[in-house]
Specification:
single chain; 601 residues; alpha+beta; Heat Shock Protein 90; Ribosomal Protein S5, domain 2; Ribosomal Protein S8, Chain: A, domain 1; 3 domains; 8-stranded mixed beta sheet; 5-stranded mixed beta sheet; binds adenosine-5'-diphosphate; binds magnesium ion
C-alpha cells in the first residue's frame, strides 16, 4: 500500500477548531476506536488496566499503516482523511483533525504495532514524550495495535483531575457502548484487566442493543417500535420504546452519520411525540440514527464533538416528531384505558386542543368511564374545563410555596376541626383563616422524606426482609456506580448481596418502604439521579435516596383513609421542617381565605 498521510496546511489546521482532545482515559479509548473504524476494521479489542491509568490497548484488524505513515501519524495535523478545507463538508470518517495521536503521544507513552495486508513485516514504533525512541520492523498480524501507557505521566495536574477508578471506568464503558451501538457489523471486545466486560459478536442493531444493555432490553421486540423516515433532508431510522415500557431510567441515544451526539432540541421532538402517553416521572428509551449529507451538519461546533449543529434543524425536528408519533400510533400504543389507576393521581391534565401539525391516530375513550368504580373515586381529571380544571391546567411549572400565616396559630386552639377527604387526593379542613386544602400524596412525600433523611443522618435505619429477594440487573457502567453507593444503601437499610456477575439480590429494604414499593424502580431512579447530577456529596446522596424512597412509599398509599389516619397525616405534616412544599418544590398546602370564599356568594 502506498503512503497516504500528509501534513495539513496551516490555514486548514486553523479552520479546525482547536480543543483539548484528551481529557481522560475514556477520550483515548474513543479516539483509538474511531481510528480503527476509519481503518475499515471488522474486529476491535479494547484492553484496560487500572481504569486506563496504566494501560489502554486497542487492537484492530483494519488496513494498517505503512512504515512512513506509522511514523507520520503522530505528527500534529497529520491525517489521511481530508486534503483541503472543502473536504470538511463531505466527511464520512469519524476523525479528520489529525490531532488525536499527536495529543496522546504528548501525554503518554505509546507503542504502535501495525502492518498492511500486502507486507510481510510490520512496523513497531515506541514513543516517549512525543519523541520516537524506537522504530523497527516486526512480525505482527495485519491491522493496528496501539498500546498507551501511563497516561498523563507528565501532566500531574491532569492526573489529579481524574476521578476514582470506578468513575473513570464508567466513562470508558459509556464511550465504548456509544460506539458499539452504531456498528453492529463490527465485533467488539472490552476487557477490564483479565475480566471480559463485553463480547459483542457481529449482529444487527436490535441484537446489539440487547447485547449492550442486557436483560432490561431482552424482550426488545416487544419494547421497541421501529421508526423510519426517508426525506430530501436526510434519513432517520431506529427504534423508540413503547410508552408502557418507559421507566425512570432509560436509554436515550442519538447518532448522526455513525457518531454519537447529544441533541437536546431533537430530544424535545421525541418527547413531544410521546405527549400524554407517559406516566409521570417516566422516560422512554430511544435509539435514533440520522443519516444526513455531511455538508449539512457542522461537527466542528464542539471540541469533543458530541454536540452537532444541523443546517435544517427545524425541519428535521418536525420530521422526527411526526415519524416517532406515527410509529407509536401505528402500533396502537396510544393511550388506553387503564383500570388500575389507584395511585396515579399525578396524571397530566387532558387538554382539549393539542398543538403541533400532525395528530397521531387516536383511540377514542372516555377517561372517566370505569365500570368498577364509583364516580367519587375516579382519579382522572375531567376533560372539560371546569373552573377547578382551569386552575390546575394553568399551574406554573414549579409552584411557588404558599404564604402560610406567620406568627399565629394555624388551627383554632379550642376545638379540632374535622378533616374531609376529597377525591382521594385532597384533605379539607378548617383553619383560622379559611379552608385548608392539603394534597395527600404530596404531604406523605414530605413526611416520608424528612423521616428517611433523619434516620439516614442518624444511621438509624431498620431493615425489613423482603418475602422474595428481588434481583437488580445492571449494565457494567451502572454496576460500577452502584458499587460505590453500596455502603450508603446498606446504611439506609437495604440488605444487598452480589448475585452473579452484574446483578445484586435485594434481600431486605428500609422498613419505611411499603410492601408494594417498587424496589427496583427506586434503586434505578436513584442511580440515574446520582449519575446525572454527579452527586457525590454525602448529604446530597442521602437526599436523593430519601427522595426516591419517599416518593415510592407515598405513591402506594392511595387507599381510603380512616379519620384518625387523616388527622395523623396533618399533624405529621405540620411537624415537618418544611410542610409547605414537597422535596421537589411542589405545593402541598393551600388555604382558601374566608373572604375569598365569601366573595363567591
Ligand atoms: P485523524 O483520525 O483525525 O485523521 P489521528 O491522529 O487520530 O487523526 O490519526 C492520524 C492518522 O493515522 C489517521 O488519519 C490514519 O491515517 C492513521 N491511523 C490512525 N489510527 C489508525 C489505525 N488504527 N489504522 C490505520 N491507520 C490509522
Ligand atoms: Mg482519529
Amino acid at each position: 500500500m502506498s503512503d497516504i498521510i500528509h501534513l495539513l496546511p496551516d490555514a486548514v489546521a486553523n479552520q479546525i477548531a482547536a480543543g483539548e482532545v484528551i481529557q481522560r482515559p475514556a477520550s483515548v479509548v474513543k479516539e483509538l476506536m474511531e481510528n480503527a473504524i476509519d481503518a475499515g476494521t471488522t474486529k476491535i479489542q479494547v484492553v484496560i488496566k487500572d481504569a486506563g491509568r496504566t494501560t489502554i490497548q486497542v487492537i484492530d484488524n483494519g488496513k494498517g499503516m505503512s512504515e512512513t505513515d506509522a511514523r507520520m501519524s503522530f505528527e500534529r495535523h497529520a491525517t489521511s482523511k481530508i486534503q483541503q478545507a472543502n473536504d470538511l463538508f463531505s466527511l464520512r470518517t469519524m476523525g479528520f483533525r489529525g490531532e488525536a495521536l499527536a495529543s496522546i503521544a504528548a501525554v503518554a507513552g505509546v507503542e504502535l504495532r501495525t502492518r498492511t495486508a500486502d507486507k510481510e513485516y510490520g512496523t513497531l514504533i515506541e514513543i516517549a514524550a512525543s519523541t520516537v525512541v524506537k522504530q523497527e520492523p516486526i512480525s505482527c498480524d495485519s491491522g493496528t495495535s496501539f498500546l498507551v501507557k501511563n497516561l498523563f505521566y507528565n501532566v500531574p495536574a491532569r492526573r489529579k483531575f481524574l476521578k476514582s477508578d470506578d468513575a473513570e471506568m464508567r466513562h470508558i464503558i459509556q464511550e465504548f457502548q456509544r460506539i458499539t451501538l452504531v456498528y453492529p457489523d463490527i465485533h467488539f471486545e472490552l476487557f477490564n484487566g483479565s475480566d471480559c466486560v463485553y463480547e459483542l459478536p457481529v449482529s444487527n442493531i436490535r441484537q446489539r442493543i440487547t447485547a449492550v444493555f442486557g436483560k432490561k432490553m431482552r424482550n426488545i421486540s416487544q419494547q421497541l417500535v421501529q421508526i423510519e423516515a426517508k426525506t430530501a433532508l436526510g434519513n432517520i431510522s431506529g427504534f423508540v420504546g413503547k410508552p408502557e415500557f418507559a421507566t425512570k431510567t432509560n436509554y436515550q441515544y442519538f447518532f448522526v452519520n455513525g457518531r454519537y451526539m447529544r441533541h437536546p432540541y431533537f430530544h424535545k421532538a421525541v418527547m413531544q411525540a410521546y405527549e400524554r402517553m407517559l406516566q409521570p416521572d417516566t422516560n422512554p428509551s430511544y435509539f435514533i440514527f440520522f443519516d444526513i449529507d455531511p455538508a449539512e451538519i457542522d461537527v466542528n461546533i464542539h471540541p469533543t464533538k458530541t454536540e452537532i449543529k444541523f443546517e435544517n434543524e427545524r425541519d428535521l425536528w418536525s420530521i422526527l416528531m411526526i415519524c416517532v408519533k406515527e410509529a407509536l400510533g401505528k402500533f396502537n400504543v396510544a393511550p388506553s384505558i387503564d383500570f388500575d389507576t389507584e395511585g396515579l393521581i399525578d396524571m397530566p391534565p387532558i387538554l382539549s386542543h393539542q398543538q403541533g401539525p400532525i395528530e397521531p391516530p387516536k383511540v377514542q375513550f372516555n377517561p372517566n368511564y370505569n365500570p368498577f368504580k364509583t364516580e367519587s373515586t375516579s382519579t382522572y381529571s375531567k376533560p372539560t374545563n371546569t373552573p377547578w380544571e382551569t386552575l390546575y391546567t394553568n399551574r406554573p411549572e414549579r409552584e411557588q410555596s404558599v404564604e402560610m400565616p406567620q406568627n399565629q396559630p394555624l388551627f383554632d386552639e379550642s376545638a379540632r376541626a374535622d378533616v374531609f377527604p376529597y377525591k382521594n387526593r385532597y384533605l379539607l379542613t378548617t383553619v383560622k383563616s379559611g379552608l385548608m386544602v392539603v394534597d395527600r400524596q404530596r404531604a406523605m412525600e414530605r413526611i416520608m422524606f424528612e423521616r428517611v433523611l433523619q434516620q439516614l443522618e442518624l444511621q438509624q435505619c431498620v431493615s425489613q426482609q423482603t418475602l422474595f429477594p428481588e434481583v437488580l440487573e445492571l449494565t457494567p457502567d451502572e454496576q460500577l456506580l452502584f458499587q460505590e453507593l453500596l455502603p450508603d444503601l446498606r446504611a439506609l437499610g437495604f440488605d444487598i448481596e452480589p448475585f452473579g456477575k452484574q446483578a445484586y439480590s435485594i434481600n431486605g429494604v428500609p422498613a419505611l418502604m411499603t410492601d408494594e414499593s417498587d424496589i427496583l424502580g427506586v434503586l434505578h431512579a436513584m442511580l440515574t439521579c446520582v449519575s446525572d447530577k454527579n452527586r457525590r456529596v454525602h448529604t446530597e446522596l442521602y437526599e436523593s435516596l430519601a427522595y426516591e424512597v419517599a416518593k415510592s412509599s407515598a405513591r402506594n398509599k392511595q387507599k381510603t383513609m380512616a379519620v384518625e389516619e387523616m388527622n395523623q397525616l396533618i399533624d405529621s405534616l405540620f411537624a415537618c421542617q418544611n410542610p409547605n412544599v414537597t422535596p421537589d418544590g411542589k405545593v402541598i398546602v393551600t388555604i382558601i381565605a374566608d373572604d375569598e370564599l365569601d366573595k363567591r356568594f
